[in-house]
Design goal:
- By secondary structure, this protein is mainly alpha-helical.
- It folds into two domains: 81 residues, Multidrug-efflux Transporter Regulator, Chain: A, Domain 2 (Orthogonal Bundle); 136 residues, no CATH class.
- It is 67% helix and 7% strand.
- It has eleven helices and five strands, in the order ααββααααβααββααα.
- A hairpin with a 2-residue loop joins strand 4 and strand 5.
- It is flat and about 75 Å long.
């Protein structure tokens, strides 16, 4: 609960209060351990956004209940203020459910407690009953491919941490541009939603193009240095 509260930017006392009010689903329990996941974090962020818009806790409870049960779901989504183009995730990742044995087959000899712990901390893996859920099919396949090429999984995960830090910085750039230019003035919400929807693929194209060119430069430079070292005559 403390970790969940920290991730959501609120206090543990507030999390307990939301639990008591029925705003937050109960965690999955294993003995004395209570496991919270991304769904709980998303719920807390939704509650915070709705409170910031002036909704009461009672109203939020009713709206979330209607939204979850599918009763007047379209109306509930409108009341919640969820513009589809603004709330649809940029990510297109597909989660993968695996048994522990299937996960071990992806990473022969690398499914160590330390690597599993790091993967869970990164948010790549979550435990759901007897199964393990990987957040992304593409990330799973890419990680397995790197390991097959001889890169230790621990180094893959360490690299993933660094990549995430840089990607967060990149996303902050795009978020700043959107905030400065799309959310200023008296533009209608529908116009903003349409503009964001149009810009989603371009943001991805820019990052992909820049990353491709950077990889070309970086890999070529290192490869040339490696070739030069191999061709250099022994002293």
């Amino acid at each position: 609960m403390a970790e969940l509260a920290e991730a959501a930017g609120i206090t543990v006392r507030t999390v307990r209060f939301y639990r008591e009010r029925g705003l937050l689903p109960p965690p999955r329990r294993e003995g004395r351990i209570a496991w919270y996941n991304e769904h709980h974090l998303a719920r807390l962020r939704t509650i915070g956004a709705l409170l910031a818009r002036g909704h009461t806790l009672g109203g939020i409870t009713e709206l979330l209940t209607a939204f979850e049960k599918g009763r007047d779901s379209h109306q509930a989504a409108e009341l919640l203020g969820f513009e589809p183009a603004l709330t649809a995730p940029f990510s297109e990742e597909v989660p993968v459910r695996l048994t522990p044995e299937e996960l071990a087959e992806y990473f022969p000899g690398e499914a160590t407690p330390d690597n599993l712990s790091d993967s869970i901390e990164l948010g790549y893996l979550a435990v759901d009953g007897d199964e393990i859920v990987h957040i992304s099919r593409r990330l799973l396949d890419a990680s397995a491919a790197l390991v097959r090429e001889g890169i230790p999984l621990a180094e893959v995960l360490a690299g993933a941490r660094e990549v995430r830090a840089h990607v967060e910085a990149i996303s902050a750039v795009f978020a700043g541009v959107l905030t400065e230019h799309l959310l200023s003035g008296d533009r209608h919400a529908e116009d903003v939603a349409t503009a964001v929807d149009r810009l989603r693929p371009y943001a991805k194209h820019i990052v992909d193009a820049e990353l491709s060119m950077a990889l070309d430069r970086g890999v070529r430079s290192r490869f040339d240095a490696w070739l030069a070292a191999r061709e250099k005559p022994d002293a």
